[in-house]
Design a protein that fits this description.
- The protein starts with a helix and ends with a helix.
- It has a single domain, classed as Nuclear Transport Factor 2, Chain: A, CATH 3.10.450.50.
- It has a 6-stranded mixed β-sheet.
- The chain is of the alpha+beta class and 156 residues long.
- The protein is built from 4 helices and 6 strands.
- Residues 5-134 form the SnoaL-like domain.
């Protein structure tokens, strides 16, 4: 492994952490900046009705603005904290990488929901950005405060 590989991996970890902390804090500019201009975020392997797909920074921004506005009583949580754990990063080229990262979200009820991210990342300038994020849900609490949140925040 080269020094450049180590620096790339650390930059990718920073992007993943920035996504999580800015998303939990609804810092929309910081959240959107984690994606390439044509970035995609989508849910896979979720219950019927919970799927979503947003393409491009404008669509991702609009989605986050609906969360911030609390449209449709998005969820009942007073806080949410996503905790990242194991993250396997594979550099696939000088400007490309794949990552698989496990996560669990905590809310007022304790552990609320959990799963993993499958990411395709691309180096843009000096930054490593998410080009495609697939969110996979493995588990959610029976009383999850987020069960209907995605449906309420999807928009039309």
């Amino acid at each position: 492994m080269t020094l450049e590989d180590l620096l790339a991996r650390e930059a990718i970890r920073d992007t993943l952490a920035r996504y999580t902390t800015s998303g939990d804090r609804l810092k929309i500019d910081a959240f959107v900046s984690c994606f390439t201009e044509d970035g995609i975020i989508e849910a896979e392997k979720v219950r019927r009705g919970q799927a979503f797909r947003f393409e491009g920074r404008a669509a991702i921004r609009a989605w986050q603005e609906r969360w911030l506005a609390g449209e449709g009583a998005t969820h009942g949580a007073t806080f949410v904290r996503h905790h990242l754990s194991t993250s396997k990063i594979d550099l696939t080229g000088p400007d490309s990488a794949n990552a698989r990262t496990y996560w669990v979200a905590w809310t007022d009820i304790g552990p609320d929901h959990a799963g993993y991210y499958l990411d395709i990342l691309r180096k843009v300038g000096e930054d490593w950005l998410i080009a495609h994020r697939r969110v996979r849900l493995d588990w959610e609490a029976e009383a999850s405060l987020f069960k209907a949140a995605i449906v309420r925040s999807r928009g039309s």
